[in-house]
Every structure is written in C-alpha cells, then in structure tokens.
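Consider the tokenized backbone below.
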C-alpha cells in the first residue's frame, strides 16, 4: 500500500502530509487514522508506548471516548528526507464539561511508501474556560478558511 505524498519531502509535500494527518485525526475514526501507519508502526504518546495498527486503533478509541468534541490543528515545524516535525494544538472537553487545549510536538518518520513507521509525541494539557476556545468549526475537517496555529497566535 502506498500513501502519497512520498518521501523525500519538500515544503509543499510536508505541509500536505500534515494536513492529511490533521483531517484524518479530526474525523475521530480510529480505523481510518490507523491506515496512515505501517503495520508495525511504533508510537510514544506522552508516557504511553503503542506498537502496530491494532494498538493504534485501541489507543485512539480510548482517547476519543475521553477527549470529547475534539478539534485539532497541525503545522509543519520542519522536514528532511523521510521525516517531518509538526507542532499542534487541539481543544477538547471531558465528560464533566471542563475544556482543555493540548499543545504538543510530534516527530514523524515515514517508509518509502509514505506510511508513518514512527511517531513520537510530547503533549501538555492546559485547562481553559469555554469562552477561551478558539476552534468553533463543526466536528470534522477544519474548514480551509479557518486560521492555523500561527494566525491564532498559538
């Protein structure tokens, strides 16, 4: 299976890859998201280590059961050959109605077919008031005219 754009990345293809990842994660569909990763993909997400697509699906299912009304924006930080580093911020609420903005960085490594074989994520959660939210689009894909992280001052 091939997942274009393929490495080596350019500024344009790295940005395309990041937007494709953002769109998939905003779908909140663990099966769909898992298809962007190799069968044996390894992750470090905060303090959790995940290996393989089935564990990715389980991880994301748990994540989105806990992180409600999830909306994410990713932005390329840098790229080189088969690696991309992104920064991101997402907003979500817990089942008690408390809102959070989670900030982080991810380092991605891809195989020759464009599938991500390694993902390393560092994330911090900031409690926010509902009035401080910046992401108000309907659940799903971020509209093309919605500001990105830089434009939002994040």
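A designed sequence for it:
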């Amino acid at each position: 299976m091939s997942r274009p754009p393929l490495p080596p990345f350019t500024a344009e293809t790295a940005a395309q890859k990041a937007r494709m990842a953002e769109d998939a994660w905003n779908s909140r569909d663990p099966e769909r998201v898992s298809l962007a990763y190799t069968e044996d993909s390894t992750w470090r997400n905060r303090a959790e280590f995940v290996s393989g697509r089935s564990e990715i699906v389980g991880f994301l299912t748990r994540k989105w059961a806990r992180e409600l009304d999830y909306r994410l924006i990713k932005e390329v930080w840098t790229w080189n050959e088969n690696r991309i580093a992104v920064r991101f911020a997402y907003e979500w609420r817990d089942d008690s109605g408390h809102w959070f903005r989670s900030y982080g960085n991810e380092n991605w490594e891809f195989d020759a077919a464009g599938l991500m074989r390694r993902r390393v994520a560092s994330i911090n959660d900031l409690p926010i008031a509902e009035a401080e939210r910046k992401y108000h689009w309907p659940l799903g894909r971020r509209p093309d005219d919605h500001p990105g992280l830089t434009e939002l001052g994040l």
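The mean pLDDT is 98.
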